[in-house]
Amino acid sequence: MYKRFSLTALFSLAVLLVLFGGLNSWIDPMFHYHPLQNGFSFVDSNERYYNAGIARNYSYDSFIIGTSVTANFRASQFDKLFGASTVKLTFPDGYFSDFDRVMQIAFENRTIKRVFCGIDTNILSRPDSARTEKLPEYLYDRNPFNDVKYLFNKDVFFGQGVKMLTQRLENTGKPFDEISTWDERFIWSKKKALSSYRRPDPAAEPLPKDAYAEAAAENLAIITRWLTDHPDTEFYFFMAPYSILYWDEASRLGKIDAVFALQQQVLETLAQYPNARLYYFMSDTDLITDLNCYTDPIHYSAAVNRQLAERMAAGDGLSPEEIAPLLAHLKRFVTSYPYDTIFSS
Questions:
Q1: 66 forms bridges with which residues in the sheet?
Q2: Is the separation of the CB atoms in 275 and 231 below 8 Å?
Q3: Can you tell me whether residue 278 is helix, strand or coil?
Q4: Does pTM surpass 0.90?
Q5: 165, 27 in Cβ contact below 8 A?
Q6: Is 127 helix (H, G, I), strand (E, B) or coil?
Q7: Phi/psi at 276 (5° precision)
């Protein structure tokens, strides 16, 4: 009697597990097996969990990659501007090792014409050893056996799967073009940008000019490998237009010389590669001083994202000869800017 009960219980458990795993694979919230299908629409979650699925299973010839300042790009705009088929692979607070891992999947599975990559100053200045959030490797590797971590993951099913089922029934989902975007949840205004900024006390001593040189070299080793490994792919690298509040902080903390040395190191290195195009949006002084375009010192609105995409499509980017004068011009601007007026008006 007890043996029969145990066998029945085990069989019932096995059936439930198969049904649970099958339902998870059918809905497939992380696109691990297939793109969105069966009438489902996406549910935003941690991009680290679904970027591998997008890179592996969607059809595209170009992709956008970067941190949260790239997240409010819409792939459809790049399709129109560049005649491309584009997906977006963004990592909030990402590191270049994150970008590198998903790029491996993209290049293994697709022929890539263009990569649009944000090379933010903040991530260029930090080494990979500072990373605190690791990628879920079971979604990135080729091992089918560790898929149990995905198929039988209750957080995946109840966190995303149930929402996707509800959206399907209620027809309330958003188009895939909106994936990873967050601009509609935030306010973009000078008041909001200022409220998000805590002005630091001035530092006693400035940072050494080469303070970020080692971290920059580590990150450049990854970036330049992309360029040499994929000579037929065009890489559009852009430095995001951090606001004047970023420069106020850099000035008060004595980081100005170190930041400009980092940027010159990176731009002049990348300018040596024929398949690299460079766009330095930080030098747009009209934009960076208009705090109504920001929600904090570095994050700008989707309207700015649209402008940046248009500017990349309209121009070939910086020539090697333009880099040093452009950096020198911005350095003069930010070192002489009357920062106190921002807070008194």
A1: 90
A2: yes
A3: strand
A4: yes
A5: yes
A6: coil
A7: -110, 130
